[in-house]
Amino acid sequence: MATLDGDETLVVPAGVQHGNEFVLKGRGVPSLNQGGRARNQVRGDLRVQIAVFVPKKLNTRERELLEELAKLRGESFSAQESRVKSKLKSAFS
């Protein structure tokens, strides 16, 4: 990811959810209260918030892969189930 000092690697552990935040200590914007001194500037923290993109439509191959993943995990994934949930969600929104 891009930072003020160039690219930085952020390792995102498994199970991280949308909205989770990571803090890179001392990698943020320099403090304005340093009297203009460039040397030894105190810097703030860089906060990174995770944004998970959920596709609205899946092509055939994507659906097959999700079904395969669900099967491996012992879960169910069906297009019918997704449509019913979507309709119920719309009805109560």
Automatic annotation (TrEMBL):
GO molecular function: unfolded protein binding
Domain Chaperone DnaJ C-terminal as annotated: residue spans: 2-55
Protein's UniProt keywords contain Chaperone: yes
InterPro entries: DnaJ_C, HSP40/DnaJ_pept-bd
GO biological process: one example: protein refolding
Keyword annotations: Chaperone
Assigned GO CC terms: cytoplasm
Protein name per the record: Unannotated protein
Native species: freshwater metagenome
